[in-house]
Specification:
Blueprint: H1 10-22, H2 26-38, H3 42-46, H4 50-53, E1 54-55, E2 60-61, E3 64-68, E4 75-79, H5 82-95, H6 116-129, H7 138-151, H8 156-163, H9 168-175, H10 179-188
Length: 191
């Protein structure tokens, strides 16, 4: 079984977003946007309800997403950046969801979120359509966040904290560091 990879190229991220937008798949656009901007696991994303992201008193998107991670049981406070806020606003204006409705509604059943398997199919289909050759899955969204945070100079210790990892060894695996990445370090350190 091949290892899931982060999406290393910013242009590929843009292609995936454009694919969802061009095909009027606003739910899937929001799913992907939250995935690559929050580093949340897909199981935590799929459980989100409108009241998790919208302050219904003010009608505005919340600044932070507060949840209990399903896998670890740990509390998580996640800042929603401007890309997330815009995507949430667009989706909310389109759907007018109520407080207790899931953000990522399944077409099957009443107020049921899509399954992990459906989310996987959404991401794989988009990756295939846009020509991404890497091993892409839902977990790629989380890894993509870590990889790009690391590439912009964020300390691996902070990334470890964001991921709620218990060891740096696990975080290093998530960062998807390649030989090209280490070669770049040698190219830049000219003492």
């Amino acid at each position: 079984m091949a290892k899931t990879e982060p999406i290393r190229n910013i242009q590929d991220i843009k292609k995936l977003k454009e694919y969802f937008k061009k095909n009027n798949r606003s739910r899937d656009y929001l799913l992907f946007t939250l995935g690559v901007n929050t580093a949340l696991r897909i199981s935590d994303i799929l459980c989100l309800r409108y009241n998790d992201v919208i302050d219904f008193e003010s009608g505005k998107v919340k600044k932070h997403l507060n949840l209990k991670e399903q896998k670890t049981g740990k509390d998580k406070c996640c800042f929603l950046n401007e890309v997330c806020v815009c995507a949430i606003n667009e989706y909310y204006n389109e759907t007018n969801g109520s407080k207790e409705e899931y953000l990522f509604q399944s077409r099957k059943g009443t107020n049921q979120p899509i399954t992990r398997q459906r989310a996987y199919c959404i991401i794989k289909e988009a990756a295939s359509y846009t020509g991404l050759s890497a091993q892409i899955s839902c977990h790629s969204m989380r890894k993509t966040f870590g990889y790009h945070a690391w590439k912009t100079g964020v300390s691996p210790a902070i990334i470890m904290d964001i991921f709620n990892h218990s060891s740096m060894k696990v975080t290093k695996i998530y960062l998807g560091i390649t030989q090209d990445d280490t070669d770049d370090v040698y190219r830049k350190i000219l003492l």
